[in-house]
Here is the input.
Amino acid sequence: MYTLPKNTPDNTLLQAGRINEERQFKEVSVEHERSRRTLGELLIRKEGEHPEKFKKEAPEDAPVVQMVNNLLSHAAGRDASDIHLEPTEKGLRVRLRIDGVLRDLTTYSREVMLLIISRLKIMAGMDIAEKRRPQDGNIQFMLDKKHVNVRISTLPTINGEKMVLRLLSPDKIIMPIEKLGFNMENQKRYLKFLANAFGMVLICGPTGCGKSTTLYSTLQYLNSPSQNIVTVEDPVEYRLDGINQVQVNNKTGFGFASALRTILRQDPNIIMVGEIRDSETAEVATRAALTGHLVFSTLHTNDAPSAVTRLLDMGVKNYLLTSSLVGIVAQRLFRLICDKCKEEYLPPEEELAFYREVSGNSKIPSFSRGRGCEECGFSGFKGRTAIHEVMTVDGEMRRLIMKSRNTEEIRRYAVSQGMQTILEDGVQRAAEGVTTLKEVMQAAYVTGDRPFACQGTTP
Ligand SMILES: [Zn+2]
Here is the structure.
């Protein structure tokens, strides 16, 4: 566990990053030349030996140690979800993913690049001599009394090792249900799903739409000494207290389906299956939900009604599905307008037309946007939350699923029962001034796909 200094002044990092040229590097590091040389020698001498030994010998005040510490604390301080370290012909390009968008941070020289990559590999317990094979590692550090877990993976590219660091902080992964972004009505519906003693609850959406956060937060909400909660995940993203988490291992044949079968012999109450990827897992999960367990899982469908047809397409029998399904949530993440630079504005006609079409409202409310300021890195946005559609599977919907597998029909019925589509939820947030119409359009539309949520609003 590393403890990093908080509030690292950005200029320390940027100054370090400006070391693009040898001349500048010398200027900055002249006082650390001795430790830098020592580190360089150590790198050569210790290659292939156990990294722990190396770590002990690396002086804590070595510039590379500070540079890496600064980079990590800067990224965590800016709420970045990922740090990309990309070797190019000239040096190491550093980008941060903040609120879902990659942004350039700085560039290091190739000399510094090798030191940084090696330092990170040492911190993560990886083999510093191995440069031709992908590796995985983990770093944990404390920043401002907050625990941050970093998952690192390397990828050998033609210019050297590319490294991606995923920053996982507990307050981003687990939050109270009321902080998940559900509007009042949707939250009420979702909590009703959780009150069931058994059945299947599905969370849908593309990669990176916050499904894991919803699931982890839900498990935490349900966690109590009277419940045996077991998860099957690939990978286990975050460790939860009081919950039995199982890591899938496809190499040894311990996949989702076989792990699920084993778990069912372990007297579980609540089961979370990371993802339903194949028909076998779909089948076992459905049966588990039917035999007195509350089962949570995710599916890669754009919206809630499509999840039903996807499971039917996977070969799950409709009578099994109708008896097990409790409800389906589809979600997307969108960026919130930065509070510091928020201003009212009139969106372009194209966006207003979109608003009118989705909301069915001809009266235009006052919309807001972020002008862009230092606080938000001049993006106009700071922080993210989710929009949802929450579909309850009731008796009538069960009858519908039994007699047909028509997504449109299921959607129409759900909407008639008060389901708000993702787009409807989104434009409402824009009308409330927490985000922009453009952001809703980008968040809810799937690139190259048709505007799925609009389908709910057209007959
Ligand atoms: Zn701002």
Remarks:
- Residues 7-12, 14-57, 446-459 have pLDDT under 50 and may be disordered.
- The two ends are 57 Å apart (CA to CA).
